[in-house]
Write a structure and sequence with these properties.
By secondary structure, the chain is α/β, with parallel strands linked by helices. It has 10 helices and 5 strands, in the order ααβββαααβαβαααα. The chain starts with a helix and ends with a helix.
Length: 236
Amino acid sequence: MSLLARLFGPAVELSPEMAARLAAWRALVPDPEQTLLGAARFVVVDVESSGLDVRRDRLLAVGACALERGRLTVGASFERVIFQAQVSTKANILVHGIAPTEQAGGLPAEQALMDFLELAGAHVLLAYHAPFDRIMLDRATREHLGVRLANRWIDLAYLAPALVPEARLPQASLDDWFRYFGIYVRARHRAIDDVLATGELMLILLSRARARGMQTIGELLVTAEAQQRLAMAGGF
């Protein structure tokens, strides 16, 4: 593989309409880190996959919801199931609940991923254990659209314990945080339901951030990154 292909992804042939949509997305400018939290737009993300191997398993579905001006914009949320020529295993289906008929009747990957990119824009993306979602999406967008996912991410697995240390959940699961705050999830491990519940968690974290005097996107990024370094050093 050439250096250009490694840097920018493989060459992908797209329809003129899809190429125009992709060009519009690539022209977007990331939100400044100085953007005030009260005016910021984030996009909460969750993916479902055929397994946990980010190098080999397939992306099955993407759920996303915008969080803007301190509110979840449910009208700007969606779930896209991606067409699978070969459906995932029965054990895997029991986890995410995406039936074989849904997988076989899903959208073409390039359409589902382009829909996601247009919702995500150049905004900061939020997820719990974000590296998994980030790598799966980046791999899929490179394969099917020929672009890398350039958005910045905030991992709530680090932001939550940084802002709510009294919970004493430094290495907790997302379910632990849902239980701690009493957040109801209609169908756990269904992308759209996980996204909406994770969005509720983020609203709580934004309130905690403002109570600590934080005002900008940049301060959230720095807080999450500092907590990650602390956890990796064994200090939690």
